[in-house]
Amino acid sequence: MGSNNPTRRRILKLGGIALGAAVVPFSATSALAASPNARFSLDFSTAADAEANTPPSAGWVTDRTEPTAWTTDQGRLRIDIDETGDITGFYAYQGKKYQDANGTYWNAGTGSRLSYRFYIDPDWETDGVEQQTGVWPVLGTADGNISAYPIMAYVDSDASDTDEAKFRSFVYRTDSEGTVVGEWVDIPLSKKLGIDPDEGGWVDVECQLQQINEGAAVKWRINNTLVLDERGYNVTAPSAQFLEVIVNSVNYGVEQSYYYDDFELTEPGAAKNR
Length: 274
Fold this sequence. Notes:
Elements: H1 8-15, E1 38-42, E2 59-64, E3 69-72, E4 77-80, E5 93-99, E6 108-109, E7 113-120, E8 132-140, E9 146-148, E10 152-155, E11 166-174, E12 180-188, E13 201-212, E14 215-222, E15 225-230, E16 241-250, E17 257-266
Antiparallel strand pairs: 1-17, 2-5, 3-4, 4-17, 5-16, 6-16, 7-13, 7-17, 8-9, 8-10, 8-16, 10-11, 11-12, 13-14, 14-15
């Protein structure tokens, strides 16, 4: 997954270009071909894929704190963090959620899959700056009430509590007293994932919702490799569907841009309902 294409910071360093200038840090050719069962499919080839939600159209709604920019850039989603915002607590997270028209849920049942691509900048490993960003699928019960947030986040070595770049996922457990607690599970960048943070590049991620007796399990795949099969998203109530998807990044008080691409939510049988 490595890339020899120049990154934004590298261009700035070599060319002496002022921060904020229009620089294309890398190129990415979209590999997305919309599935016939897609509930939505965003390749960011048009500005509409990054626009706000409206009564007649699906779109993005601010979650927690509004980033400085949420735009299409050379066929990708570009997120610019507002470094002047909160750097601790609830509102340190900046991002948006993608909802159906008029701010409604997608209600995609078990068997559905959410997939996307994410760019790891190789300069993150040497810049001395913390980076953390991730996708937060929102699960719901059969009645449409929120039941869990199976987050998949990427943290660079500066932000990591182990000093190693990694993915990590948020899961739920019931302790010995019967209290539901949330915790992070680390997903190291093993060789089988084909990810070297020093080289960077695009990473393919998929979240599959699978029906089980207790409700639903979530299977996470990174670069087509199963990294987590989690059954704990039913401890508050049985999970049965994807409601929406959130993309959130942490503000560490410095200028930062993140790139995503090819968001797609598919649901078995969706093509029959068109």
